[in-house]
Specification:
The complex is a heterodimer of chains A (114) and B (116).
Chain A: E1 5-7, E2 10-13, E3 19-24, E4 31-37, E5 44-50, E6 53-57, E7 64-68, E8 74-78, E9 87-94, E10 104-105, E11 109-113
Chain B: E1 3-5, E2 10-14, E3 19-21, E4 24-26, E5 33-39, E6 46-52, E7 60-61, E8 64-69, E9 74-79, E10 88-98, E11 101-106, E12 110-115
Classes of the chains: A mainly beta (114), B mainly beta (116).
Chain lengths: 114, 116
């Protein structure tokens, strides 16, 4: 079975641009969450979606938005990119939205903002 | 606010030896879970072990075990018989349920190098 897939794997953008990152969860998983991992730090929670509804949002500005599609894949959008948005963006899926669900992570999208 | 602290940025261990990675956390929550995740150079986070706060018994998974001290808010990971494939970043994570969802908080990680 395919794991969590993210695209693209690497991306270079300039300040002020917009970016869309994509995530396909493991088949049968209905929950997707997004994390930002700045170099030298642990992942920070951005969003969680379950059954196409936003269930949680971390402390990120409104420039960050996301959505989940009927096939449970998800997009993370970041507008007006700043240098500080440079990071590894991780997507994780889980079977349920409940608290005890184990997270399965993708290999991430490395975003560089110049 | 919940915090997770990993005070060892880097550690090394000889192959076949035992190593312990430290983690402390701060919370006022009573219902929570603790995790150790491994992030190899491939960048994919992999769950190593999980501990429910309401369970007194320490979790074990093959060569991996934890020392969970709830009163001290300490959650260390012991890796026995270290293997070269254990070389990776290790993140301690705290998870608690919030209305309709749950939140994960990760520590800053410990880079473990297993030496041949």
């Amino acid at each position: 079975d395919a794991g969590v897939t993210q695209s693209p794997t690497h991306l270079i953008k300039t300040r002020g641009q917009h970016v869309t990152l994509r995530c396909s969860p493991i088949s049968g998983h209905k929950s997707v969450s997004w994390y930002q991992q700045v170099l030298g730090q642990g992942p920070q929670f951005i969003f969680q979606y379950y059954e196409k509804e936003e269930r949680g949002r971390g402390n990120f500005p409104d420039r960050f938005s996301a959505r989940q599609f009927p096939n449970y894949s998800s997009e993370l959008n970041v507008n007006a990119l700043l240098l500080g948005d440079s990071a590894l963006y991780l997507c994780a899926s889980s079977p349920l939205g409940g608290a005890v669900s184990k997270l399965f992570f993708g290999s991430g999208t490395q975003l560089s903002v110049l | 606010a919940q915090t997770v602290t990993q005070s060892q940025p880097e550690m090394s261990v000889q192959e076949a030896e035992t190593v312990t990675l430290s983690c402390t956390y701060d919370t006022s929550e009573s219902n929570y879970y603790l995790f150790w995740y491994k992030q190899p150079p491939s960048r994919q986070m992999i769950l190593v072990i999980r501990q429910e706060a309401y369970k007194q018994q320490n979790a074990t998974e093959n060569r991996f075990s934890v020392n969970f001290q709830k009163a001290a808010k300490s959650f260390s990971l012991k890796i026995s018989d270290s293997q070269l494939g254990d070389t990776a970043m290790y993140f301690c994570a705290f998870m608690f349920p919030e209305t309709g969802t749950y939140k994960y908080i990760f520590g800053t990680g410990t880079r473990l190098k297993v030496l041949a």
